[in-house]
């Protein structure tokens, strides 16, 4: 009889250890599963008036500040209006548009971006963030992303 009781205690202890070892991975797996079952979060887009159309003639650029905390460079290129964030994707310095060279320049590490915001020199690897922009009547409207909807 004592051997049978010892066997039972040993079995119970082994089951407890196995259960304790299985709980954390199961909890992590269930959290991951819940994340994939949720619908994907969408970017919240807020259209804002960034400038008056007369301020941005054809082939010109305009820097605008304080738009929902963004500093932007607007460029009118033929029929299109382009809106770029001035935050350098390298380490966050402020880029400026260089009209003569037709490129963006970051003063911190000499990062340069072409007219489309693509990196061309320096330590930068990612392009400048770009926002959809359009002319609506006499106004230039930019769709700013301000994080994710809940
Ligand atoms: S912060 Fe712009 S190149 Fe480094």
Descriptive account of the structure:
This protein is α+β, with helices and mostly antiparallel strands. The protein folds into two domains: 38 residues; 106 residues, Rieske Iron-sulfur Protein, CATH 2.102.10.10. The chain is built from one helix and eleven strands; from the N terminus they run αβββββββββββ. It has a four-stranded antiparallel β-sheet with strand order 2-3-4-9, with no helix packed on it. A four-stranded antiparallel β-sheet has the order 5-6-7-8, with no helix packed on it. A three-stranded antiparallel β-sheet has the order 1-11-10, with no helix packed on it. Bound molecules: FE2/S2 (inorganic) cluster. FE2/S2 (inorganic) cluster (FES) binds next to loops.
Strand arrangement in the largest pleated sheet? 2-3-4-9
Q: Superfamily at the CATH H level of the largest domain?
A: Rieske [2Fe-2S] iron-sulphur domain
**How far from one another are the termini?**
62 Å
Mean pLDDT across every amino acid position: 86
Task: Give the count of structural domains.
Answer: 2
Assign an overall shape: elongated
CATH class of the largest domain: Mainly Beta
Instruction: Tell me which CATH architecture of the largest domain applies here.
Output: 3-layer Sandwich
- Could you name the ranges where pLDDT drops below 50 across 5 or more consecutive residues? none
Structural class: alpha+beta
Helix content: 10-25%
Biggest sheet descriptor: 4 strands, antiparallel
Q: Note the run of SSEs as H and E.
A: HEEEEEEEEEEE
> What ligand species are in this complex?
FE2/S2 (inorganic) cluster
Number of strands: 11
């Amino acid at each position: 009889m004592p051997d049978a009781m010892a066997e039972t205690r040993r079995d119970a202890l082994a089951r407890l250890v196995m259960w304790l070892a299985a709980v954390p991975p199961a909890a992590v797996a269930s959290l991951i599963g819940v994340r994939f079952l949720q619908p994907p979060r969408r970017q919240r887009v807020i259209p804002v008036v960034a400038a008056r159309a007369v301020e941005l003639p054809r082939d010109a650029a305009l820097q605008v500040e304080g738009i929902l905390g963004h500093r932007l460079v607007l460029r009118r290129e033929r029929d299109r209006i382009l809106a770029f964030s001035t935050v350098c994707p390298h380490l966050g310095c402020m880029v400026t548009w260089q009209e003569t060279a037709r490129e963006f320049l970051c003063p911190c590490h000499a990062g340069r971006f072409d007219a489309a915001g693509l990196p061309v020199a320096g330590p930068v690897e990612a392009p400048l963030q770009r926002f959809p922009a359009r002319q609506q009547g006499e106004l230039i409207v930019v769709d700013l992303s301000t994080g994710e909807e809940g």
